[in-house]
Amino acid sequence: MPGVQDRVALVTGGGQGIGEGIAHRLAAGGAKVGVLDLNLDNATTVAEAIKAEGGQAIALSADVSKRDQVQAAVDQLVGEFGGLHILVNNAGVIRDNLLFKMTDEDWTLVMEVHLRGAFLCSQIAQKHMGDAGFGRIISMSSTSATGNRGQANYSTAKMGLQGFTKTLAIELGPRGITANAIAPGFIETAMTKATAERIGTTIDQMRDAVASTVPVRRGGVPADIANAVAFFAAEESGYVTGQVLYVDGGSELL
Known about the structure:
This protein is an alpha/beta fold.
């Protein structure tokens, strides 16, 4: 089956965590991967690991909220691999705080990275996808999109990405481009470990607490999200668009 074989993919926030897992999964499926991260060293480490495993990858650096930097990164990727067919809008930050403590900077940074970043990357990428008559845009939402204490900024941005995704599906579908979103629940990464420490617990305690409340009785790992991305990115998934897939161990069932 074709899957993502010989497609060119761009994974933002690909230097660690969920993005790293996605980059490896797409490369393992035969895609040529642009690993984009604000931290070029992190992106380089991931790209080199992919190449050591026999895959094809290039490290890219950009602030996804800056149009000129995104354009330069896409130009570099297209110049290296000859096109762009799959975009994973994964770059993100958190600046959690209760509403009365949240600063303008806390709000703006989260909106800039999550929403403006997805807008810029998608707008720039879709031209190459349209020219090829094939495209897959996959954006990372979150279970927090439906509301979460201390995350007014993050929840708003993640729900915004769901509306953004559905609109892209409508606009870009006639050009052979699908748009879907994934809403992870608890996924064990460096970011969730830092969150655990910030609230006075440990990643082990957080994992165990989540596992006790979801039907599958375990926490999530980046590979769980990467698997969902691979499905949406595949050539065979061309009749699936405008969807939001919650990958959360079934937490919404309880």
